[in-house]
Each structure stands twice: as structure tokens, then as C-alpha cells.
Amino acid sequence: SMQCFPSLVLALSSLLGALALLQLSLYLRVPSRYGKHEERLCRPRGRLPARCAWFLQELPSFLVPALLLALRNPPRLEPLGCRLLCCLFCWHYFYRTFIYPFFTRGRPFPLQLLFFGALFCIYNGFLQGYYLIYCAEYPNDWCTDIRFTSGLLLFLLGMGINIHSDLLLRQLRKPGEVTYKIPQGGLFTYVSGANYFGEIVEWFGFAIATWSLPAFAFAFFTLCCIGPRAYHHHRYYLKTFTDYPKSRKALIPFVF
Questions:
Q1: Is residue 254 in some structural domain?
Q2: Domain tally for the chain?
Q3: Is residue 26 part of a domain?
Q4: Alpha carbon 93 to chain centroid, angstroms
Q5: Do the Cβ atoms of 158 and 203 come closer than 8 Å?
Q6: Residue 194: inside a domain, yes or no?
Q7: Whole-number mean pLDDT of the chain?
Q8: pLDDT for 224-233, tens place per residue?
Q9: For residue range 160-191, what is the model confidence (pLDDT) as tens digits?
Q10: Exposure check for the chain: N or C terminus, fewer CB within 10 A?
Q11: Keywords, A to Z (predicted)?
């Protein structure tokens, strides 16, 4: 049976923070080359349909914590706060693995990016699951703590924004279409990256509810990874569409 090694949690969380800064340095000026930022002359040879790629990439984030829980003897089901936090993480990735991919209408996905994405999901799935299942210690009344309740509300708000924004993006295309159009409605009224904004809010909510180094490292990584992509989406829309609303911000309403 596995044991908790705090030094391992610290090392993996620190590495995740370093990877976040690396992502920021790599993609702040130049976007990662897939989707609308893919250069036609430099398309990778190996690609998978978007639905299959998203399923394979996100699956480890759901399976790894589930496997860690199954391997724990005896199973850890208490306290309630810990169980709920683990469920929140798995809930998000259940949606991303088993629901989102089967409705997406994105372009074929480069195998290279799929490989690194899946590798990250294994890494982060292990870190978050290992901490919550083997290391985390919460009081029995953690569910009434202001950190848990406020974080949970942020998580649910962010997830709602993310799912709603994905729905609006999906409705822009008819089946088989690959052209890009101006997103309308919801939080897209104010920001170009409404779906990214929702996911960032979601994981910072999770970090507050969990109040742990691994969760805050993941939230920071999410910000550094998809924050620049939202910025580059914003620039793309401004350059591509002459009628794009000039009042929209890149990521944070009324600020950035």
C-alpha cells in the first residue's frame, strides 16, 4: 500500500510551477501551433480526429485518481470534505473525457501535442489524486469552512462558464465546417476567451477549496498555459474580422 511522502508532493508541485513558467515563456509571444493558430505550411504529419484526441488526452486525469483510490487499502472515504474535493476533480475530467469530446467540432489534432497533453494529464492526475487520497488531512467540519464554501462556489461558477462557452462555440459551426466565426453571447460579450476564463476560475476555486500546494500549482499552470492562448485568440479575431467588437477584452472582463 502507498504511503504519503510530503517531500514528493513538494517536489512534484514545485516542478509543476516551473512547467507553468516554461509554458508562459514559450507561448506568450508565439501561440502553440494548433487550431486557428496552425500554420498551413507546417502542419504535422500525424494527426487524429479532434474527438478521439480529446478523449485520449483527458482520460488519464480521470483514470489515475480513480486507480489511486482503488489501490488504497483500506479505501479512504473520510472525511466528507476530502471525498467531495476528489469528486470535484474527477467530475471535471469525467465531463472533459466522456462528454465534451463527443460534441466537439474542432480540427484534427497533432499527435505530438496529444502526447504531451496526455503526459501532463498523467502527471497532474497523479499529483492531485495522490495528495487528496494519501496525504490530505481535513477537519470533519471542512465542508463549512469559508475556504471550502467560497472555493466550491468559484469552481461551480467557472465550470458553468466553461461548459456554456463551449456550447456557444460549438453552435458556431455546422457539422463538417472548419471555418472560424465570431463567438457571440454569454461571457463572449465581454471577453474573447470566455471558455478559458471559466476554466481558470474553476481551478482557482478548486485550489481555494482544497487549500493545498498541488492545487494552487495546477491553478497557476492553467493560468500560464491557457491565458496566453486566450490572448492570441483575441489578437487573431481582431486581425481576421474587421467587425470584431473592439470593446472585448482578451481574458478578464474590463481589465485585460
A1: no
A2: 1
A3: yes
A4: 9
A5: yes
A6: yes
A7: 88
A8: 999 999 898 8
A9: 999 999 999 888 877 666 678 888 899 999 99
A10: N
A11: Differentiation, Endoplasmic reticulum, Lipid metabolism, Membrane, Microsome, NADP, Oxidoreductase, Sexual differentiation, Transmembrane, Transmembrane helix
